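Request: Mind sharing a record?
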Amino acid sequence: MHRSRFFNDHGKAFLDWLFKGIHHLKDENSQEVVRLFEVEDGWELYRGRYCPPSSDPKNILVSPETELAAPPKEKARAGRMNPVGVPVFYGAFDRDTCIAELRPSVGGMVLTGAFQLLRDARVLDFGVLENIFDSQPMSCFDPAYRASMERRQFLRTLHSNQFASHA
């Protein structure tokens, strides 16, 4: 229950279709959709926690390395890429995005922290992917039009989908 889940051949076929060729995509500035972030490059990821007005932020401030890390498996809620019970670290490359993802209420407080990679990571950059899609015109006369449009729309929805609460 608390690890990556097995999925069937139908699920695998869908993911293969969805991400087919994605490792080779680059935008007009030669930015790759799938990017390798190496530890030695010193990349930082930002993670935040919304603090409702009734909460005490001191708990987070005392131990930010654990309070802002991926949640324990018992508290892991469903997110964009994980089911309930599977902890995932959702991070952003800048604080503004991190805060925007949390969608704090007016007057609400958000605490953020910067994390450095402990090992190399491959990251799917949805911003680059969307720029590529926007710059590639499609023809409704193309026999693959419907499948291509469905793929684009699904990836856009995945990118823009916001959940009411993050773990």
Summary: Residues 162-167 have pLDDT under 50 and may be disordered.
